[in-house]
Amino acid sequence: MLPHLRSVVGLALAASASASALTVLADGSNSTCLAQDAIQTASLFTGQEADAAGIQPGQAKSLTDAANFINFCSEQTLTNGRQLPDGSCNGIPMGKIPAAKNMISALITKPLPGDRLVANVTFEILVQTRNLHAGIQTNPAVSYYNAPQDVDEDGYVLGHCHVVIEELDSLRTLIAPDPLKFVFFRGINDAGVGGLLRAEVTGGLPTGFYRVCTMVAASNHQPVVMPLAQRGGQNDCARFAVVDLAEDGGYRP
Ligand SMILES: *[C@@H]1O[C@H](CO)[C@@H](O)[C@H](O)[C@H]1NC(C)=O
Ligand SMILES: *[C@@H]1O[C@H](CO)[C@@H](O)[C@H](O)[C@H]1NC(C)=O
């Protein structure tokens, strides 16, 4: 056990004798208490109260909590910085949300839709991003979803972009691909140039049909959170074919 955790436990045990729920951290602060000015009173309501603005038939009731759901994950498996394949509960706040003028978008500029790449030849993926402060990523093994989204001094979300390639039955497939199966994955960890990010697929891919997608993320790998519900996409996908040049006579994607 880490020394500061040991002292928290010790203090919590001492406090429980006096029936106090307060946990004082090793540095003497009350940092596990929710500050009064951080409480979001909208969470007191389901959003389906008769006088609620924007109410529409078919809407679900929101969960409610008087304290920002601060204990939502209590007695559950905590994400706690890990990628847990059986699922978990993450209690970290969503964090800082950019202004509408700084919302992120991305476009894959290579390969382009319908492109026919040559089998087993190295190619590059290019992603033109907008309003992403790229090049910031935390350790995904121990810091996954472990801190809120943050913005830089100019209000741009700090983060990075992943690219993933999945194989498809055809360019016009109607089958949603299985997210557990992909043929290429890369976190683009550099800041890029003018928002243009690049990943190399070394050795290329075998013949087939593929989809390449972006997954733009904040620093701790969470999908980026935006200020307006109705907006353009933060991500892009492009479908392309990989062909065997020698047999390409009758081949059409
Ligand atoms: C911690 O919270 C208690 C109860 O609200 C308060 O009396 C005490 O002054 C606080 N201590 C610090 C260091 O903020
Ligand atoms: C590409 O590489 C794969 C795996 O090595 C091989 O099976 C396939 O025949 C190659 N395709 C072409 C067109 O060279």
Automatic annotation (TrEMBL):
Residues 1-19 form the signal peptide. InterPro entries: Appressorial_penetr-assoc. Keywords: Signal. The keyword Signal applies. This is Malate dehydrogenase. It comes from Schizothecium vesticola.
